[in-house]
Amino acid sequence: MEYLDIQNTLRREPRRWLVTGVAGFIGSNLLETLLNLDQTVVGLDNFETGYLRNIEDALARARGGGRFRHIEGDIRDPSTCRAATRDVDIVLHQAALGSVPRSILEPETFHRVNVDGFVNLALAARQNGVKRFVYASSSAVYGDHEALPKSEDHIGAPLSPYALTKHQNEQYADLLHRVYGLETVGLRYFNVYGRRQDPRSTYAAVIPNWVHALLRGERCAIFGDGETTRDFCYIDDVVQANLLAALRTLSSERSVYNVGGGARTSLNDLFEFLRGSLAARRPELADVAPEYQDFRPGDVRHSQADISAICADLGFRPTHALEKGLEETLDWYVTQLGGTHAIAV
């Protein structure tokens, strides 16, 4: 009911939003939803990891009366951030570099984008009177803390430069709130999946990577023994979390929330489900086996979100268990990637 109430409120009282990383996976889904709720959206993206096709697809699927303007620019440029946040009510900050392996290879780049860019945007939001600054954090901040499920109040040492940048985002957000009064809400995303997630990147997330490989008749790489576990969260639930964080009254001192499904799935079980579901559409995939490789540096062994805080404080209610979310995701990927070509295994 809380999310429905938020949507009805937005239709009655439209806001002006900035979505950074709007050409990316999560950003384009936020754009689509906001336009369907008749909002005015400014998008900011430099197209380093996002794609114009994602914006075009979001605009094509949006049936609402919202308005959209895109700024091609980089959050590392303070003047771009000031221009993008002008006359904006709410910022949904998704722009970042997000690969653990790449961050180990390029720590300086990750710091400039994820930390310097974050500070540029947050300060610009404060200067321009933005009412609330919602930003993407990550479950990677839990680092080597082994307790399950992961609770917001207990984190460990970071295991990668990417994880460190997200922790620094949270520290800066807390400081900007205490010193300057900027309302900030951080969302610690667990493993987000769904439509428009890029499968072709060298550093693609596991679900689009495996779906792409299976549809091409290639073997899927499992790093380690396959008993590594993850908490997978469907894109619609991430959109819900952003809108709740943007509009709900902040009733507690907490300013960072987990966003996940609240369950754990092993990589072996995930592979079995994906292969079985795709084999129902493409029988020739039924016998494809994964390829086990060495564990990767920086990878967390087990991950599961405690979502009690976001449920209690913001009214978050996940709508997609993994099986439901994967079926919808696979329908989208088969349409986009499968075509009519036979798969050679």
Largest sheet properties: 7 strands, parallel
CATH class of the domain at 2-193 and 235-262 and 305-319: Alpha Beta
Structural class: alpha/beta
Overall shape: it is globular
- How are the strands of the biggest sheet laid out side by side? 3-2-1-4-5-6-11
Mean pLDDT: 93
Description of the molecule:
It is a single chain. Helices cover 43% and strands 16% of the residues. The chain has a domain at 2-193 and 235-262 and 305-319: Rossmann fold. The termini are far apart. A seven-stranded parallel sheet has the order 3-2-1-4-5-6-11, sandwiched between helices. Strands 7-10 form a two-stranded parallel ribbon. It is built from twelve helices and 13 strands.
Strand-helix topology:
Elements: H1 2-12, E1 16-20, H2 25-36, E2 40-45, H3 52-61, E3 67-72, H4 78-85, E4 90-93, H5 100-105, H6 107-127, E5 132-138, H7 161-180, E6 184-189, E7 191-193, H8 206-215, E8 221-223, E9 229-230, E10 232-234, H9 235-247, E11 256-259, E12 265-266, H10 267-281, E13 291-293, H11 308-314, H12 322-338
Parallel strand pairs: 1-2, 1-4, 2-3, 4-5, 5-6, 6-11, 7-10, 8-13
Antiparallel strand pairs: 9-12
Helix pairs in contact: 1-9, 2-3, 2-9, 4-6, 6-7, 8-10, 8-12, 10-12
